[in-house]
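COMPLEX REQUEST
Ligand: uridine-5'-diphosphate
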Amino acid sequence: MEKQEQQKVSRLVFVLIPFQGHINPMLQLATILYAKGFSITIIHPQFNFPNSSNHPEFTFIPISDNLPKREVSAGDLFGIVSALNKNCEGPLTECIKEMLKAEDPHDRISCIVYDSTMCFSQSVADHLKLPGICVRTSPAATMLAFAVFPRLHEQGYISFLESMSLDRVSDLPSLMLKELAASMKKITTDGMLELGAAVADSVKKCSALIVNTVDFLEQEAITKVQELFSASAFTIGPFHKLLPTISSSLLKEDTNCISWLNKQAPKSVIYVSFGSIASIDEKELLETAWGLANCEQPFLWVVRPGLVCGSNCLELLPINFQDSVGERGCIVEWAPQKEVLANDAVGGFWSHCGWNSTLESICEGVPMLCKPFFGDQNINMRYVCDVWNVGLELEDFEGGTIKKAIKRLMVDTEGKEMRKKAIHLKEKVELSLKEGDSCYNSLNDLVKKILSF
Ligand code: UDP
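STATUS: Structure written out below.
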């Protein structure tokens, strides 16, 4: 989509939550709306902030977050989210008040565009009489989980959490109760039920909801979200495919893996990454190493510092590991993932099923081996394996199971069928971006909506 030749008429104030899987889509969305003629201010907590010099076209403003050191050093995701929601409301309000005071009449603040997990931003918008736009960086189905979970919890269903019920969730028939329960488990155990309700509440109050998804991928869930939340929803994903965007990686990308990939046979490489937050224990790291060493496929493995809590991980691998796999294995601490998935050598993605990774894999027609850890990853896996049929579930972190699952995905007829379906999905996504199709239309409607504020 071309940048429109028009004067900057209004400013959008983005509020980020400081996690890689949220920063990426939020900055992609900001880039898309900048290209549509809006000016952009990015407000972010001091923790984990993106490199502003990569985006000279945006104004970046940090706000204080007072995050408790204990939660941060323990990597307690839900503790951090909860603290951000408590601590940032005042600083955000003050920051936007200052902006309003200094406002240029030709560059007015039009609305606050916030990550749905920073749901207090809607109260700030209401207080300052500005429209709030809520952005969901996970699929629409996860919002239904927020909506149906408190009811199921009240009805006592979730006490049967561990019973692994195979019943379908009535509002979301693609899911089984056990998966809904697994995805929401953290919420009960960590007392985060309130936050789930606050997210749902902000979605009901916002002036518009943007979801990084594609209509045809989860039509049933999108329709239900509109009904349940009476939300004016704009599905304009996958954001990263609308415009070329600059990397917003918090870790340095190791691009050497691209030259390694260029030497591998087409569709031969299994790419392995568990995203920016999930962690495994030392035993699981070693089982993964031996599963990959024995699988007979070339592999590219992201071993992120902290993948095993408190360790830089590479030191935990057996001393002879790289020698035993030789040129067949490439290990990096952080990869340029979108470029990796787009490389013709990559034939499969063993993923934790984070939503960005799932969308990025779909967009490149790469089938997946799914091993979700928490939250929406369980829901995403269900769609990948049972609804779109472009992946299979890895049951456990055991070297022999890993080896067999990689063969099923990369070599067996079953995997080849999944690859065909994945390529078909990729083509459908490409169509949705074309003029007159769902994403293109939804983006134009969103721009009209913002201009109407
Ligand atoms: N990513 C990357 N390099 C890596 C691993 C991940 O650039 O080595 C990016 C990936 O492309 C995605 C994001 O980090 O955009 C991870 O988001 P996702 O929702 O998949 O998972 P999360 O990190 O939130 O669990």
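REMARKS: The chain is about 45% helix and 15% strand. Residues 1-6, 160-164, 186-190 have pLDDT under 50 and may be disordered.
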